[in-house]
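Anyone have C-alpha cells for Cytochrome b561 domain-containing protein? Sequence:
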Amino acid sequence: MFIAWGVIPPVAIFIARYLKNVLGHRWYLSHTGLLIYGTGGLIVAGLVVIEINVVPGVTRFVGSSTHGIMGTVVALALYPLQCLLGLRATTFLTPIDERLRY
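Reply: yep, here.
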C-alpha cells in the first residue's frame, strides 16, 4: 500500500507537472496509466491479500480498527471518485484549452 499511495501518485503528479512539454502526448498516457493501473492494481492486490489473511469470523467493519475503516473508505469510495473526476476533468476543456488536454 505504501507504493500504491506513497510512490506512484507523486511520480504521476511529477510527470503531469514537469514532464508535459518533454513527453508530449505521452505525459497524459503515463500519468493516467500510472494512477489507474498502478495505484488501482496495487489497491486490488492489497484488498485480495487482506481478504486471504483475515481470520474467519473476524468482522471487517463493526469493531474494526480506525485504519481498517479508513482504508476501506479510501479504497472503495474515494479512489474510484478520484478516477471519475480525473477522467471527467478532460471533458470540461474548451477548444482554447485543447493544447493542455494531452
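DSSP finds five helices and no strands in the chain.
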